[in-house]
Amino acid sequence: MIKHVVMWKLKDISEGKTKEENAETMKKLLEDLPSKIDELQSAEVGINILDRDDDAVCDLVLTVQCETKEDLQAYAKHPDHQKVVQFAKKIVTERRVVDYISDQ
């Protein structure tokens, strides 16, 4: 099992919307992906709940689960995922990623 974790920091205002509005939009877009991409077993999205001024805090996190590395690569290239990527590029200031093998 492969887990793909992405964390983002969002711009305060982007695309005419607040950080909070864009976080909700991105959450919905990401949560819709497993129904559109066969290689995805699951996608969990969380919006940060703590209001603190700390460089280590991110605004949004995604955890995706795939069976194989090939499935993860297929997800990354999938047109529906690429649409989310294009939206993210407009609203994100920083992005961090880790992919790992999980026994769960």
UniProtKB/TrEMBL annotation:
Annotated coiled-coil segments of the chain: none
Domain annotation Stress-response A/B barrel: ranges: 2-100
PANTHER family for this protein: BLL2683 PROTEIN, STRESS-RESPONSE A_B BARREL DOMAIN-CONTAINING PROTEIN
Name this polypeptide is given: Stress responsive A/B Barrel Domain
